[in-house]
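User: Could you write out the 3D structure of this protein bound to uridine-diphosphate-N-acetylglucosamine? I've included everything you need below.
Assistant: Certainly. Input first, then the structure.
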Amino acid sequence: MQKLKIVNVVGARPNFMKIAPICEEIRKYPGIEPYLLHTGQHYDHAMSELFFKNLGLPEPDRYLGIGSGSHGEQAGRIMIAFEATLDEVQPDLVIVVGDVNSTIACGLVAVKMGVKLAHVEAGLRSFDRSMPEEVNRVLTDQISDYLFTTEVTARDNLTREGVSDDKIFFVGNVMIDTLLRHRQQASKREVLTDLGIAPRAYALVTLHRPANVDDRRILTGLIHALCAISERLPVVFPVHPRTRQRLVDFELEAEMRGYPDLRLRAPLGYLDFLQCMDNARCVITDSGGIQEETTVLGVPCVTTRENTERPVTVVEGTNVVVGRDSQRLLDAVHNILSGEGKAGRSPELWDGKAAERIVNILWEREGAPRITANETIR
Ligand code: UD1
């Protein structure tokens, strides 16, 4: 039997939890031959390796070791190396997830080489083209053969951009598959004790978007707000490498030292971070994925961005979007501490079975047709 050869691509931190359940599901199909490729866009132990370990991901079959750089340089290096890999591996299909530079760079190479492309987490739109991720999302969706969506609004966005309806599949959320699978294991971690915090008695913060951290005025305002919040409840802040650098550049570190309950830490692994989210009184973030994870966990989330590409987290979930204004951030946290945080509910199909749906669709359309009548189907 000629197997269906699928290259799964990961590059940066938010990709790992999205590809993990797909890799796991593919293992149930003897007719599929998987190949895991890591571009190396993220390379620090805490941003990459630790996630492979926490999520039980197999060692990548190929590590491109691309590292950091300007967007053009990074995408260019990924494309050159990925083209050589595809030449050698000759897959039938490439799966890319999310919206990072590795997603569009590998997607573009695949379609130019005539390899079918599946995009997982398609159709999300912030309608803000100044976000690098928005450009990556729009372009990847335009060139994909399979567009797997997480929420109902995504289909409307794609239809408006001319994507034909028969390529769009509403399957749910693979990142939530991973969360539901690891929640119990995460609950056994000792991270709260290690950080000296008690359940429901701290705020958890992540900030790394260029729009927030690369602008001195905005970052200073947000940090001042966090200092003020830390006087009411401890603030745990695992700091992304980009943000760490900006805190040094803008000389904010010394000021923060005057607030002992603003606790800066190195980035956490997947399980420790999940445990911290699950037990937080509230989460303050500019991440995309964390808006979704807090919605499923039922933890109030304050998003320090002007928009969200994940509107279901606001309409149905626990998320409020406050922009980059420090006063609005303070007001939102005040509301939560006064007991007015949103309870929310889990959106449709965020049930832990998204990867199962995705692999089933791909197998039915791409794999099954190769099997002749007297060969066994999985
Ligand atoms: C990338 C994604 C973003 C995602 C984020 C999660 C794009 C356009 N952005 O942003 O969508 O939310 O990852 O973390 O793809 N660095 C390290 N070690 C690392 C990785 C990065 O020190 O392992 C530092 C480097 O100085 C680098 C900077 O962080 O220049 C930014 O890294 P980069 O991958 O360019 O983008 P992120 O800001 O991490």
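The longest strand covers residues 4-10.
User: Perfect, thank you.
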